[in-house]
């Protein structure tokens, strides 16, 4: 029951966050960030819509519990890099989305750990 709740919460969060980037129904900002981080965002801004579409697809697959072991594995480096980026910006007030995604992803990866053990043989 807890795992199903984590799965639904993660899927809904990813879909909501990504759709908000297109439709702006919640206020967002990248917060204060160092110039190097701002330069990075400016350099990759053209690719961000593709990332958000990818997030919606991942969120839908998580909600419907399709290919979940693979999705959690694909999402893991993305959630860790999201968390590292937020830590690097030193903006603690904007850290909660990265923490939510990372914690939920870690819980779900641990739950599916038996599926990943053959990869380590």
Your description of this structure?
Helix 1 packs antiparallel against helix 3, helix 1 (2-23) packs antiparallel against helix 5 (96-111) and helix 4 (68-89) runs antiparallel to helix 5. The mean pLDDT is 88. With 121 residues, this protein is mostly helical. It has one domain (2-25, 33-120). It is built from six helices and no strands.
What's the SSE blueprint?
Elements: H1 2-23, H2 35-44, H3 48-63, H4 68-89, H5 96-111, H6 113-116
Helix pairs in contact: 1-3, 1-5, 4-5
What would a concise description of this structure say?
The chain has 121 residues and is mainly α.
Task: Please supply descriptive tags for the structure shown above.
mainly alpha; 6 helices
Instruction: Report the major sheet.
Output: none
The termini sit apart by 31 Å
- Residues in helix, %: over 70%
Oligomer: single chain
Shape: globular
Total strands: the figure is: 0
Query: Taking Cα atoms only, what radius of gyration do you get, to the nearest Å?
Result: 15 Å
Uncertain ranges: none
Secondary-structure-derived class = mainly alpha
Order of helices and strands: HHHHHH
**Average pLDDT metric:** 88
The percent range for strand residues is: under 5%
Total domain units: 1
Per DSSP, the total helix count is 6
